[in-house]
């Protein structure tokens, strides 16, 4: 890479973002780093047209449920490599991150040197899943297939359904007409083969990070 890289850090902890930004600045001369503290801020930053070389994503941010942001990124920005950085480094979490399309995974407990190595590997088009055996889950593959059918707006509606919001509340949150939201909800339920909003919400919850992921 001949140009100075541009990074996007998505994490809701300011001190951690600052630490990662400092590490990236030390590793890459002239690097540009932008930050997002929530799912909505992440969307707005990507929509402004800036081209990023790498995204560093925390799985637990306001507006996100587990792997939902990762799946959304892989669907909407398939050419943007995503390096997941999480405090939950259990084997199943790492395996799911890889299966859901991440280019790498780094534990928040890892030393700065490991982060630097991971970033360089991913930016060279390689994967970085240190000492992890990735076992494919057919259940997760089927979940990815169902969610991939949704448009970006339908995905946003689904996430708000999962939060328990009613159509009027979703309309207010997204700046849409209530009838438009109703149409989106109907489409979401149909595409996901869900009979009710509750069933759709339960489906989204399966994207959450399982605290007992070593039991699978």
TrEMBL record:
What UniProt keywords apply to this chain's record, in alphabetical order? Answer: Phosphoprotein
The chain positions of domain Response regulatory read: 6-123
- What SMART domains does the entry give? HTH_LUXR (SM00421), REC (SM00448)
* Positions of modified residues (4-aspartylphosphate): 58
Q: Name the source's superkingdom.
A: Bacteria
Q: Which GO terms describe its biological process?
A: phosphorelay signal transduction system; regulation of DNA-templated transcription
HTH luxR-type domain span: 143-208
Name listed for the protein in its UniProt record: Response regulator transcription factor
The species this protein was found in: Oleiagrimonas citrea
């Amino acid at each position: 890479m001949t140009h100075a890289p541009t990074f996007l850090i998505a994490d809701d902890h300011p001190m951690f973002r600052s630490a990662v930004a400092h590490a990236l600045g030390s590793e890459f001369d002239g690097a540009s780093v932008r930050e997002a503290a929530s799912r909505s801020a992440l969307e707005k930053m990507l929509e402004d047209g800036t081209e990023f070389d790498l995204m560093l994503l925390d799985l637990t941010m306001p507006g996100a449920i587990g792997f939902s942001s990762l799946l959304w990124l892989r669907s909407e920005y398939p050419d943007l490599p995503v390096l997941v950085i999480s405090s939950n480094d259990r084997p199943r979490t790492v395996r799911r991150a890889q299966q859901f399309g991440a280019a790498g995974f780094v534990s928040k407990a890892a030393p700065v040197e490991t982060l630097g190595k991971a970033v360089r590997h991913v930016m060279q088009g390689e994967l970085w899943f240190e000492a992890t055996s990735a076992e494919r889950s057919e259940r997760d593959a089927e979940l990815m297939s169902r969610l991939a059918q949704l448009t970006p707006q339908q995905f946003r509606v689904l996430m708000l359904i999962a939060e328990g919001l009613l159509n009027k509340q979703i309309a207010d949150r997204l700046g849409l007409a209530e009838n438009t939201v109703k149409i989106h909800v109907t489409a979401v339920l149909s595409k996901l083969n869900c009979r009710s909003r509750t069933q759709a919400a339960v489906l989204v919850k399966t994207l959450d990070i399982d605290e007992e992921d070593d039991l699978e």
